[in-house]
Every structure is written in structure tokens, then in C-alpha cells.
């Protein structure tokens, strides 16, 4: 059997409907940490829409077979094996009962049924249900579930599963039971159970149709004081989905449960969402503004899955973006509406900028490497490796483009038709596209390429102005540039690109737009539909030579190439009416300067920065008409990771030198302004988690971080120490500590030791805060002769470190390898040796998490020769020792 178990490729083209269907599932659990008994009774019948099969093949993993019966008769012709169980020569319809056992306490993979802090939890997406019992564990097999949980009452007083609680009672020997019924058909990946010592914050609300609903947020007792924000976020999400999409909560009860051992962010199990504690628990003392915002987004995301994912689910895992891209789009819109409402364009732009920054830094990088894949992949070895930035974030951009093309109302019509057609079904990305097309009377055949082509499109623009004719011609060419081989083989033809454009006059005001052939001008932003490889658009009646504002609000996930001068970028930064493009102009300006400086640094030449660039930044910093959150985003330089990826050969040390040079230059040149901004944006009084207050804190703390770059950081040390001691919230306290770590890196000052120690002692009982303590140290800048790898290795031996807990592993190991590029890519290869060790250690414990860490070297071919060689050696070392299919897929693709 083991030869057959080596990675085999699953292909989208091979999809076939299941030979059997399962209509009802009755599960009985006798919960015990080392040996849980699961009895499963299935109503099975042949699928009329599939080819005949005489044997029933069920999936199962890591299960001990106990017994089986068919229609009440003990079964002889059943064979349990490493990958499942075969029942030979079955009738057309029958009842199958299977009993098995598993060991939740020994399950470090956090997939299937496992124990965390003494409580039981499940995680079934994508293929975890087969680790609980034998099943047709694929999303196109939908059934109704009845679940009976039995456990010791003292140790596990709370017993939860999907749907409605229909019965509870006591059993002999101090045990008790609870029975749950989920009235909605669902795929097995949405099954969940939770059992243990938990308490809940409860609310009752009435939804649109007048029905009362019970909402619960379940946590360990000491965390009850950190549940209010998650509950508020849930209530907001429920109301928002009714208002924006006409979608109502369909169950009488909706539960969120927090667990501290969790592979990802959260999981949308029907009526019983299970969350990483990081995306539930918050109060001002323990959580930052970013944490508050993330909780709102993730609570919304999982709730929105109830319709986009659960009521309408995926036919197969290649369609993952059907639910994930759409649900990310919905959570982004939710957060934007919550921060600014429909009206506040600047507040909506802040959210848009943050989302695009993630897309460009993470998804564009994925698209440029060996894991490049289309939004709807063609093949995979391990599906867990395809919960990616492409499926989620690019998938969300693809959904957003429908809304850009059809407007909010047209998009809503498409969504309505999608649910009218497909409620209760398992469908494909094509079904979604057809609903949008049909509801808007459009043929979207070309748009399909957004689902099938990998790589980041490049749109090159040239313009010409004819003064005599008052015509302005915009020429647009699309292509993919030098895409990675993985991406290139998927690229078949031009895309339909909604390309939003505005034209700005010399006074900084938008010009009215009239395209050739139009009777008169209307609007100041136009969404051009680019469909060809090369196309021209002619604006007429253009009184003066304009400056183009391209791809407004980032209307498509592409790279725009246009030859702006530095003066033009400074002009756009000062005047563009599109707030996204104002920010974008600043980023282009900074990126260009930083890349020039990085090249100089690599060649050992002296660094200098044009005063004009400093002035452009000064204007943003001191422009009190701009919102603080916008200014903070505009003044934050592009990340080192992003910059290194833009180089012909990535050189993290050179990028770090360049970026630090610019930060120090801006710190010195604008010192008085930073100090003034710091004073002006303090938020005295009680902490408020509002976007406005968060914007003030963000700008103030950015000022502090720049002040910490000064050669004499005495001001920063004084301000940061005072801020640390006086802080009534985690945003200010952690920012102060971070500034002190920054100042200490350049000066070697010992002022950081006391607050660092204080932070640990103060929050020793708050694991999520201790995660921050590890992460702050892992991402700190290195001082001369004090490489951060030494600190990281010392922290690995700290009693609070635990590789088995994914949040803790991420806080130290992932933070260092993924968010401290200059130190991780140290010339001596010490970072890579550490990476290889940790990938292999995690591989034996938790393959899903190990595979995420393994991906951190996948762009190795793009680095300078010396680094490339050492990365290659580390990858080979991992390839030689890897056990899991998850990590093997990653390193084999990287080395191919
Ligand atoms: N479906 C989940 C979401 O996006 C994410 C998810 C997929 C997940 N696989 C998982 C979460 C495994 C935890 C563990 O909302
Ligand atoms: Zn999701």
C-alpha cells in the first residue's frame, strides 16, 4: 500500500460525480481523550447520475476499525485499509453502520478530532472528516446530520454540534449526553463538535423576518471578558448581510467557539463557527487596533459563509474560490461599510489600500513563483496547500470586478439569481459567472480567463495629446511579462480588464470625460473595458494636456506600467481625487527611489535622496485636511519584502540598507514635524476602538517609529518609555515597545530591557499577548554584532515557547523567517539552516503548518547567487527528510 500512498496528482479534468449519495448521517460519539468511539449510521443510495459501481469506497484515515453492519446485519464483506474502507457488492439503497475509534489526545495535526487545553474540537475542512469516521468525504455529497455526544459531565459540561439542540440528559457513571439536529443538508467539511469546560456570552436578536435568534460566543472562563467585540461584530455582520444582500440567518441559534490551537484563522461550520482565539478575544489591554479590525473582518467572513459556502457550496475543491473569493469580497465590503458607511470615500479607501497592499505583497509574489496557480487550480497534490492568496485575495478581486463592471445593483441582481438557481446545491465557479452574466444580460465568456490563467497581468499604457484636435489617445497593451513557468503554461489569451481612468487638469481638478462617439461628456472616472492585447481609447474635447490617473481604486488585479516623472507622481500625490491613486502615487515615488538606492547599496556606492521626495512626504505629513489613517498609510514605505521582489535579483541586505537610509533621512529632515504630529495625535481618555481613534494612534505611532531612527533617539526613548508606562491599550503599549527595540538596535541602549521584561510579566497569563512578545523580538532590527537569529534561538528554549501551538510557532519562527528579511537572509546562511530545522520539526507534528513555513523559500531562484545557493541547499535538506505529502509538494515544486 505504501508505494501507492506517494503523492498522486488530483486533476480538475478528472472530476466525476460520486457513485453513491448519502442522504442522512447519524453520529454517536463516546468522547474520551485517548480513545473516542464513533458510531456512524448512513442512509446510502446509488447516484442515478453516476456510472454504476458495485463496491462502496469510503475515505478514512488514522481510524481503528471496530465493527460494521448493513441493514442491521453484521457485515463480512467489508475491508478497512490505510486510506478508507471498502464494502463489496452493495444493494441500490441501504443503511450502513460503521463503528471506529480515534485518538484525539495524540492528534497534533489539528485536523479531525483533537484536544486543546483539555477540551475537544474538530476541524474538517478540507479533508478532516475522514479522520473522524469513514465517509464520502467530498463536498458534493450533502446530507442531514443528527449528532449525539456522550462524555463525562464534570470534565465536559458543554457539548456542542451543528444546528439545533433537541435533547439532553444524564447517563450512568457521571456521564451525560446532548443531541443536535442540523436541518440543512451539508457537506462533511462543515461538520463540527465541541466539548469541554466553556462559558458563553449570549445575546438574543430579532432578524428581518421577525424571528428571534440566540447568539453565543463560547470561550474558556477566564476569557469571558474578551468576547464583547466579537459579539458586536457578529451582530453587525448579521444586519449587514440582510441590508446589503437580503440574506438572513437561517438557524435559530448561531455559535462561535474560540480555541487556542488552530491551524488557520477560523472555520465556518454550519451554525458552529470555530475560531482561532486570535480572531475572537479582544479587550483594550490585550488587543491592538489591528486585532479589533481583524476580528470584525473574520467574524464577518465566517458568518457570510453561511450563504456563500454553506447554503451554496463547492462541487469540488478546485472550486474553492467560489466560496472563498466571494466571501473575502463580502468581508472586505463589510469592513469598508463599517468604517466609513456608503458615503465616506476616504475611509473606504483606507480599507481598500490595506487590502491591495496585502494582495500585491503576498499574492503577486505567489504568482511569480513555483506555486503560481489560477484562481481555479487545475491540479493539486495536497488541497490544504491551495488555501492561498490567489484563491482568497485574487479570487476576491475577480468577484470585485463583476461589481465594477455592473455596479452595485447589477452585482446584487447577479447574487440574487445565483441563490435562486443554486440554493442547496454544490456548484462551480462557472455557475457563479453565468448567474452574473445572465442577470446583467452580458456574455462573460472572455472573463472566464480570470479563473483559468495564472500570473499577474501587466497593463502598459502610453498616451498622446493632440492640442489642435483636443484629442487624448490612451493606448493600452496587456500581457504577462516574464511569468514563471508554472504561470506561463496557463496563459492563453487577453483578459477582460475593467480599467478605471480619470484625467486631471493642470489645476489638479478632474476633467469631464467624453469618449469618441459619445454625444457629450459625463463623469470624471470612466471604467474602460480592455479586451484586446492592444487597444486605444480616444477622449475628445480635452481642453488641455491632462495627467492620467490610471486603474483608479485598483479596478483590476494587474500591474500598471506608465512612465510618470517624479514631478507627475508628486502632483498626483497632492491632487488626485481618487484617494487610492493618491496613495499609489506616493508608493510609486518611494518604490522608485528605494530601488535606485538598493542598487547603489548593493554596489557599495554612497546613498542620497532627492529633496523633492522629502518635500512630497512633508506635504502629506503636515496636510491636516487628510485623515490620519490615510497619512499613516501614505507615509509608510513599501515593505522590504515587496521591494526585494521588484529587484532583478533580490538582495535583502541592500534593500534594508536603502530603506533604513530613507527612514533615517525622513526622520532627520522632518524631525520637528514628527514631534508635532506625535503630540497632536495622542488620544487621551478612555480607549475607543473606532477607525478614527485608531487612525490617530497609527499616525502617532508611525511618528514615534521614525523618531526612533534618529542618530540621537533621546526624544523617542523618552516619549516611548512614557507611552509604554502610561498606556491604557495594547496598540500604544506594543508600539512603544517596538520603538524602543528600534532605538536599541541602532544605539545598543539598555532602555528596552525593563519594558520588555515588564511586558512579559504583565501578560504572562494572556497567550495572545505573549505571542506579540515573541513576534516583536523576532522581527526586531539587528544591531551591529547582535544578529537576531541568536535571540530567536534563545527564545526557542524559553519555557513559554511551544512548537505544537501554531500561534506560538507563527509568533517566533514564522515572524523571523517571513517578516524579518534582512536577518533571515543573513549572508552566513544561519537563517536558512534554522528554517530547515523548523520545517522538519513541524513536519512531524503538523504538516499543514509545516507546509506554510516551507513556502518561505519558494522564491529562492530570484535571489542573488550567493543566497540562492544556500537556499537551494536548505531546500534539498528538507526534501531529503520530509515525511508529509503537504511539505513534499511544496519543496518538490520549489526544486523542479
Ligand atoms: N474555510 C476557512 C475560511 O476561510 C478556512 C479553512 C480552510 C480552515 N481549511 C482550514 C481553517 C483548516 C482551519 C483549518 O474561513
Ligand atoms: Zn473562508
UniProtKB/TrEMBL annotation:
<dbReference type="GO" id="GO:0008237">
    <property type="term" value="F:metallopeptidase activity"/>
</dbReference>
<feature type="domain" description="Peptidase M1 membrane alanine aminopeptidase">
    <location>
        <begin position="230"/>
        <end position="450"/>
    </location>
</feature>
<comment type="function">
    <text>Aminopeptidase N is involved in the degradation of intracellular peptides generated by protein breakdown during normal growth as well as in response to nutrient starvation.</text>
</comment>
<dbReference type="InterPro" id="IPR042097">
    <property type="entry name" value="Aminopeptidase_N-like_N_sf"/>
</dbReference>
<dbReference type="Pfam" id="PF01433">
    <property type="entry name" value="Peptidase_M1"/>
</dbReference>
<dbReference type="InterPro" id="IPR037144">
    <property type="entry name" value="Peptidase_M1_pepN_C_sf"/>
</dbReference>
<dbReference type="Pfam" id="PF17900">
    <property type="entry name" value="Peptidase_M1_N"/>
</dbReference>
<keyword id="KW-0378">Hydrolase</keyword>
<dbReference type="InterPro" id="IPR038438">
    <property type="entry name" value="PepN_Ig-like_sf"/>
</dbReference>
<keyword id="KW-0645">Protease</keyword>
<dbReference type="GO" id="GO:0016285">
    <property type="term" value="F:alanyl aminopeptidase activity"/>
</dbReference>
<keyword id="KW-0031">Aminopeptidase</keyword>
<dbReference type="GO" id="GO:0008270">
    <property type="term" value="F:zinc ion binding"/>
</dbReference>
<keyword id="KW-0479">Metal-binding</keyword>
<dbReference type="InterPro" id="IPR024601">
    <property type="entry name" value="Peptidase_M1_pepN_C"/>
</dbReference>
<feature type="domain" description="Peptidase M1 alanyl aminopeptidase Ig-like fold">
    <location>
        <begin position="455"/>
        <end position="563"/>
    </location>
</feature>
<feature type="domain" description="Peptidase M1 alanyl aminopeptidase C-terminal">
    <location>
        <begin position="567"/>
        <end position="896"/>
    </location>
</feature>
<dbReference type="Pfam" id="PF11940">
    <property type="entry name" value="DUF3458"/>
</dbReference>
<dbReference type="InterPro" id="IPR027268">
    <property type="entry name" value="Peptidase_M4/M1_CTD_sf"/>
</dbReference>
<feature type="domain" description="Aminopeptidase N-like N-terminal">
    <location>
        <begin position="107"/>
        <end position="190"/>
    </location>
</feature>
<dbReference type="InterPro" id="IPR001930">
    <property type="entry name" value="Peptidase_M1"/>
</dbReference>
<protein>
    <recommendedName>
        <fullName>Aminopeptidase N</fullName>
        <ecNumber>3.4.11.2</ecNumber>
    </recommendedName>
</protein>
<dbReference type="Pfam" id="PF17432">
    <property type="entry name" value="DUF3458_C"/>
</dbReference>
<dbReference type="InterPro" id="IPR045357">
    <property type="entry name" value="Aminopeptidase_N-like_N"/>
</dbReference>
<keyword id="KW-0862">Zinc</keyword>
<keyword id="KW-0482">Metalloprotease</keyword>
<comment type="similarity">
    <text>Belongs to the peptidase M1 family.</text>
</comment>
<dbReference type="InterPro" id="IPR035414">
    <property type="entry name" value="Peptidase_M1_pepN_Ig-like"/>
</dbReference>
<dbReference type="GO" id="GO:0006508">
    <property type="term" value="P:proteolysis"/>
</dbReference>
<dbReference type="InterPro" id="IPR014782">
    <property type="entry name" value="Peptidase_M1_dom"/>
</dbReference>
<dbReference type="InterPro" id="IPR012779">
    <property type="entry name" value="Peptidase_M1_pepN"/>
</dbReference>
Amino acid at each position: 500500500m505504501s508505494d501507492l500512498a506517494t503523492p498522486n496528482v488530483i486533476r480538475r479534468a478528472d472530476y466525476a460525480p460520486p457513485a453513491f449519495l448519502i442522504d442522512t448521517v447519524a453520529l454517536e460519539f463516546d468522547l474520551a481523550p485517548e480513545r473516542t468511539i464513533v458510531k456512524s449510521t448512513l442512509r446510502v443510495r446509488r447516484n442515478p447520475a453516476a456510472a454504476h459501481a458495485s463496491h462502496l469506497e469510503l475515505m478514512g484515515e488514522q481510524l481503528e476499525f471496530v465493527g460494521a453492519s448493513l441493514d442491521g446485519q453484521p457485515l463480512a464483506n467489508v475491508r478497512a485499509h490505510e486510506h478508507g474502507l471498502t464494502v463489496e457488492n452493495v444493494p441500490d439503497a441501504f443503511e450502513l453502520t460503521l463503528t471506529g475509534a480515534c485518538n484525539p489526545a495524540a492528534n497534533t495535526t489539528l485536523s479531525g478530532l483533537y484536544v486543546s487545553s483539555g477540551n475537544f474540537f474538530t476541524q474538517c475542512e478540507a479533508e478532516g472528516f475522514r479522520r473522524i469516521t469513514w465517509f464520502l468525504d467530498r463536498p458534493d455529497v450533502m446530507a442531514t446530520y443528527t449528532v449525539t455526544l456522550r462524555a463525562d459531565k464534570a470534565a465536559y459540561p458543554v457539548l456542542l454540534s451543528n444546528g439545533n439542540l433537541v435533547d439532553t440528559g444524564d447517563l450512568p457513571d457521571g456521564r451525560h449526553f446532548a443531541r443536535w439536529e442540523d436541518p440543512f443538508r451539508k457537506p462533511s467539511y462543515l461538520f463540527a463538535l465541541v466539548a469541554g469546560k466553556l462559558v458563553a456570552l449570549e445575546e438574543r436578536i430579532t432578524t428581518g423576518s421577525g424571528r428571534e435568534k440566540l447568539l453565543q460566543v463560547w470561550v474558556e472562563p477566564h476569557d469571558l471578558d474578551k468576547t464583547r467585540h466579537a459579539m458586536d461584530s457578529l451582530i453587525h455582520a448579521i444586519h449587514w448581510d440582510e441590508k446589503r444582500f437580503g440574506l438572513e440567518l437561517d438557524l435559530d441559534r448561531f455559535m462561535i467557539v474560540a480555541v487556542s490551537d488552530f491551524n488557520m484563522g477560523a472555520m465556518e461550520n454550519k451554525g458552529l463557527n470555530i475560531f482561532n482565539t486570535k480572531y475572537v478575544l479582544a479587550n483594550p489591554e490585550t488587543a491592538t487596533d489591528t486585532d479589533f479590525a481583524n476580528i470584525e473582518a473574520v467574524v464577518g467572513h465566517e458568518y457570510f459563509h453561511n450563504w456563500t459556502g454553506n447554503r451554496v457550496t463547492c462541487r469540488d475543491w478546485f472550486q474553492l474560490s467560489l466560496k472563498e473569493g466571494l466571501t473575502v469580497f463580502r468581508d472586505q465590503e463589510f469592513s469598508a461599510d463599517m468604517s466609513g458607511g456608503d458615503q465616506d470615500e476616504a475611509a473606504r479607501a483606507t480599507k481598500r489600500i490595506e487590502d491591495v497592499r496585502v494582495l500585491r505583497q503576498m499574492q503577486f509574489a505567489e504568482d511569480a513563483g513555483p506555486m503560481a496557480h489560477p484562481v481555479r487550480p487545475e491540479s493539486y497534490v495536497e488541497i490544504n496547500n491551495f488555501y492561498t492568496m490567489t484563491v482568497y485575495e485574487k479570487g476576491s478581486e475577480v468577484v470585485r470586478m463583476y461589481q465594477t463592471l455592473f455596479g452595485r445593483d447589477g452585482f446584487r441582481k447577479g447574487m440574487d439569481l445565483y441563490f435562486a438557481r443554486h440554493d442547496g446545491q454544490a456548484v462551480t465557479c462557472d455557475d457563479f459567472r453565468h448567474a452574473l452574466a445572465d442577470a446583467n444580460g452580458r456574455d462573460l465568456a472572455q472573463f472566464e480567463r480570470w479563473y483559468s490563467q495564472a500570473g499577474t497581468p501587466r497593463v502598459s499604457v502610453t498616451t498622446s495629446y493632440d492640442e489642435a484636435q483636443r484629442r487624448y489617445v490612451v493606448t493600452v497593451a496587456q500581457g504577462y511579462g516574464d511569468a514563471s513557468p508554472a504561470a506561463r503554461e496557463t496563459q492563453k489569451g487577453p483578459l477582460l480588464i475593467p480599467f478605471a481612468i480619470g484625467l486631471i487638469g493642470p489645476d489638479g481638478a478632474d476633467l469631464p470625460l467624453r469618449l469618441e462617439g459619445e454625444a457629450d461628456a459625463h463623469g470624471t472616472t470612466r471604467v474602460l473595458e480592455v479586451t484586446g492585447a492592444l487597444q486605444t481609447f480616444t477622449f475628445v474635447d480635452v481642453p488641455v494636456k491632462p495627467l492620467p490617473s490610471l486603474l483608479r481604486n485598483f479596478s483590476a488585479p494587474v500591474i500598471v506600467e506608465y512612465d510618470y516623472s517624479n514631478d507627475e507622481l508628486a502632483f498626483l500625490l497632492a491632487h488626485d481625487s481618487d484617494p487610492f491613486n493618491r496613495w499609489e502615487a506616493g508608493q510609486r515615488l518611494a518604490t522608485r527611489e528605494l530601488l535606485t538606492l538598493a542598487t547603489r547599496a548593493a554596489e557599495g556606492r554612497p546613498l542620497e535622496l532627492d529633496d523633492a521626495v522629502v518635500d512630497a512626504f512633508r506635504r502629506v505629513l503636515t496636510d491636516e485636511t487628510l485623515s490620519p489613517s490615510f497619512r499613516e498609510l501614505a507615509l509608510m514605505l513599501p515593505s522590504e519584502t515587496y521591494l526585494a521582489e521588484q529587484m532583478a535579483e533580490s538582495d535583502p541586505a541592500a534593500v534594508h540598507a536603502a530603506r533604513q537610509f530613507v527612514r533615517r533621512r525622513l526622520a532627520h529632515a522632518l524631525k520637528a514635524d514628527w514631534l508635532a504630529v506625535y503630540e497632536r495625535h495622542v488620544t487621551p481618555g478612555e480607549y475607543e476602538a473606532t477607525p478614527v481613534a485608531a487612525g490617530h494612534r497609527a499616525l502617532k505611532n508611525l511618528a514615534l517609529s521614525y523618531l526612533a531612527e534618529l542618530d540621537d533617539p533621546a526624544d523617542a526613548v523618552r516619549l516611548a518609555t512614557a507611552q509604554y508606562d502610561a498606556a491604557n491599550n495594547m496598540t500604544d503599549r506594543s508600539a512603544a515597545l517596538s520603538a524602543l527595540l528600534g532605538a536599541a538596535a541602532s544605539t545598543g541602549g539598555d532602555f528596552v530591557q525593563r519594558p520588555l521584561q515588564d511586558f512579559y510579566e504583565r501578560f504572562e497569563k494572556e497567550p495572545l499577548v505573549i505571542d506579540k512578545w515573541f513576534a516583536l523580538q523576532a522581527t526586531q532590527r539587528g544591531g551591529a554584532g547582535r544578529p537576531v537569529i541568536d535571540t530567536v534561538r534563545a527564545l526557542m528554549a524559553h519555557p513559554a515557547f511551544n512548537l505544537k501551538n501554531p500561534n506560538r510557532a507563527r509568533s517566533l519562527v514564522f515572524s523571523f523567517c517571513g517578516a524579518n528579511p534582512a536577518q533571515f537572509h543573513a549572508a552566513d546562511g544561519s537563517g536558512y539552516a534554522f528554517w530547515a530545522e523548523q520545517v522538519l520539526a513541524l513536519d512531524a507534528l503538523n504538516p499543514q503548518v509545516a507546509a506554510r513555513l516551507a513556502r518561505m523559500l519558494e522564491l529562492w531562484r530570484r535571489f542573488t547567487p550567493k543566497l540562492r545557493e544556500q537556499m537551494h541547499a536548505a531546500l534539498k535538506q528538507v526534501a531529503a527528510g520530509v515525511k508529509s505529502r503537504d511539505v513534499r509538494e511544496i519543496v518538490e515544486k520549489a526544486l523542479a
